[in-house]
Amino acid sequence: DRVPQDRVADRRYAQRRLGWTG
């Protein structure tokens, strides 16, 4: 469905929302 890059971006975005920094 979504390209790997999109998946990575979504994952990083979710982490940022949670307040994680890496």
Structural description of this entry:
The protein has 22 residues and is mainly alpha-helical. The model has no long low-confidence stretch (mean pLDDT 74). The protein has one helix and no strands.
How many β strands by DSSP? 0
**Main β-sheet description:** none
Give the low-pLDDT segments: none
Distance between the ends: 25 Å
Total helix count? 1
Strand content: under 5%
Q: Helicity, in percent?
A: 55-70%
Shape: rod-shaped
Radius of gyration: 9 Å
What is the typical, i.e. mean, pLDDT?
74
Sequence of secondary-structure elements: H
Structural class: mainly alpha
Search tags:
mainly alpha, 1 helix, 22 residues
Summarize the structure.
With 22 residues, the protein is mainly α. The chain is 68% helix and 0% strand.
Question: Which SSEs are present, and which pair or pack?
Answer:
Layout: H1 4-18
